[in-house]
Amino acid sequence: MSRALRVAAPIQARGEHSGEHRWLEWLQARMDPAWRAGEWDSEALLFTGDLNSARTAAWPCRTPGCPTATRRPSGRCDGCRRARVGVGRSWAEFDAAPPPRATRPLQRGSCSVPGCEGDLHCAGLCFRHERARGKDRTEPVAAFIARARPLARAAECRVAGCDRESIARRGLCHFHNQRLHRRGLLTGDELAAWIAGERPRLGLHQFSVAGLPELLRTELLYALQQRDQAPPPLDPTEVRILLTRLAGAASLREADPQAVCESGGTVCNTATRGLFRGLRRHLDRAWAHYAGADPFAGDVWQVALLDLPINASRRWPATQGVIDFSVVEVTWLREIVKDWARTTRPCLQRLRETLRACQAASRALTAAWRAEQAGLGAGDFTRILEAISSQRRADGSPYPASHRNLMIYQFCQVIEYGRASGLMAAVPGPFRPATRHRVHDDPNEDELGKALPETVIRQLDAHRHLHGPAGRAGAIPAAGLQLMHQTIYQILRGTGRRPGEVVSLRTGCIEIIGGQHNLICDNHKAGRMRRRLPITPGTAQIIQSWQQRRKAGRTRHTAAVAVPQPAAARPPVPWARHTGLRGPGVQDLGRPDRHHRLRAARTRRHPGPVRTVPDHPVRAAPFLRPKAR
Ligand SMILES: [Zn+2]
Ligand SMILES: [Zn+2]
Ligand SMILES: [Zn+2]
Questions:
Q1: Is 145 left (phi over 0), alpha (psi -120 to 50) or beta?
Q2: Which ligand has the nearest atom to the CA of 114?
Q3: What ligand has the least distance to the C-alpha of 103?
Q4: Predicted structure pTM score
Q5: How far is the CA of 165 from the centre of ligand 1 (A)?
Q6: Contact indicator for 313, 304 with CB cutoff of 8 Å
Q7: Which ligand approaches the C-alpha of residue 104 most closely?
Q8: pLDDT tens digit sequence for 210-228
Q9: CB within 8 A of 591, min separation 6: which ones?
Q10: CA 203 to ligand 3 centroid distance, Å
Q11: How close is the Cα of 223 to the center of ligand 3, in Å?
Q12: Which ligand is nearest to the CA of 113?
């Protein structure tokens, strides 16, 4: 029996091996040979980041003459930072006369003896010339350099990827020889194994995959190339840390996440974990593709494999959770919504909303015993729309009208899609949206508490001169700051826009067509950019007078220093922090959120048509940003 097992084992291993080989070939066929030209060296298996590229998280140290790279946002290398703290000087004083400090030069130096090919070791000499100088150091280095003979370059270090000159009998460079010395002297096979596990000495803008198992190396490079198609920039140091954590693993796809991310040892931070998970996700997706598994098959889809953006403003792929279509009990509807999702590839948020609408529709049909396609009619469609319109939150409160309209719209989109793609041949024609169905908010339900009461707005208007901080902010005088706050308040009041939308208005944000003033603004929350919003001439006048003042230069530096530009992807921040609005009345509003948008009654009465316009490049600087000098 043991004999049979022993015979069987190699066959199985061979089978595994050929499977692994096919996977390797699949990955290799999909590698980009032109990836990061100038940074990635496929011969030396070495990545050397371009310090001037925004796609690589490494920059030259800002200290004049410092040969080191840094990955710190401050732009200073660790050697300089420690040295400055040590001498207790300001950066200006430090830069004027940088003290000696530990630096790691980006480029290997060469020996000062003319014609010598040796690597710089110390005192301007290569290792062999430095030794040849002997113990007698009375002779000046310059004199030694003048009389020394140049030496041919010794063989390269035995560590894979290390391009330094070997100096010892074991064929190692000085750096690796020192490492071996600390490890304890090894011989024969032990030494060979130790060398195989060593990495070249790298700068923090570099990583090397030399000496890694071929599968691990290929998987890592494939996943890095995939990940590199979108931000964040590649951080070579994170890759180096990850490689240390992966020590001993033969495959990145099969590495144990617990061992890589959670166990102790070399520092493993959130960024390393994020890198590991991101690379694994690309490999999982590739594996599903390789194995022929369709991520869109079945009723439960793994979000990580779908490559759908999170929502309209966060366009990177969603990674968490599953989408369960089995909540739509009516089979034909479930198949249509799946086909719609597969074909149109909506963002995850839209897909979930649509699924919720279809779930409500499915429940309405099931409850009325109308799940069969053939018997459906216009009445059933109306029943569904009513069911969606009357949806409530878990706590029983109604959804806002905008949300219910969105659900209706999404459901109609799915039905129209089903009709257009011939998936609803068995459903009678009248089962379709006849007129545009819209829910209107019952003012007693939704509007109360959303808009500020007129009395409060009147109070705020009466004390408008008190808005804004009393003191100056840097070079910005208090008067300019207050005027800016007062303008922001008036725009908030006059347009009902969100604070983030107000502070991201652009200089050309007013448009007059046929005497009607329109405000062009970006709705970051819904991802609808450059929307036209009709505004009153009074509000337009407020905006224009601010623009003139800004142009006049007196408030040149006024704005954005005090009004941070909210990034579209940033989580919502209470508007008081955006605008810094202060003064009587405003503080009493507590922490307003979307239910407290500073909406004037005037805007509600005068909603006007809001239409999307095609995007076109914006050349003007944002409205409230300081003018570039
Ligand atoms: Zn430095
Ligand atoms: Zn030399
Ligand atoms: Zn070496």
A1: alpha
A2: 2
A3: 1
A4: 0.58
A5: 26
A6: no
A7: 1
A8: 888 999 999 999 999 999 9
A9: 574, 576
A10: 14
A11: 28
A12: 2
